[in-house]
Task: structure prediction
Amino acid sequence: MPGIVSTTKSRTNLILANPTREGATATVKVLSADGASSGTLSSLYVPPYSRIQIDGVAAAAGLPTLTLGSLSVAVTSGVGLVVPVASVIDNASNSFSLVKGRRVGSGAFRALIVPGVVRATGALETSYRTALNIANGTSTPANLQLIYRYYDLDLAGKPGEAVANVTIPAF
Result:
């Protein structure tokens, strides 16, 4: 599972869910982006029809600072199924993100549309921000073009666009 973080700005919590009638024990391995650092959480028992949550999974596994890592989950005993669900938590507001993008296009043109808000002011002058983490789960580098389309409320709602070409290293 890519996109695991542990920084001063955000952390990743992990839920291990077991949707079966048999219990299962799992091991979680957390890796840094370059694979040089790792940490492991062992003997995590997930009862039948239940879930457990590991707050700040990277720090819990011994990686207190992790910019963009990944994790794997393996059932080590029992016959139950363990399904991982990760959420990225903003440390300032404790808000979380479980954002599912929408794929469009096919062939040479494939895109993933991700909804988001970069800057917004709410009630009582509260501020909201959105972060986008991208991870590459393949063995080859991924060349991406990121296009951010927005409406600038400071410029009377005029549309704008920002483009960045990036290469995400291989997993």
User: Anything to note?
Assistant: The chain has one helix and 14 strands.
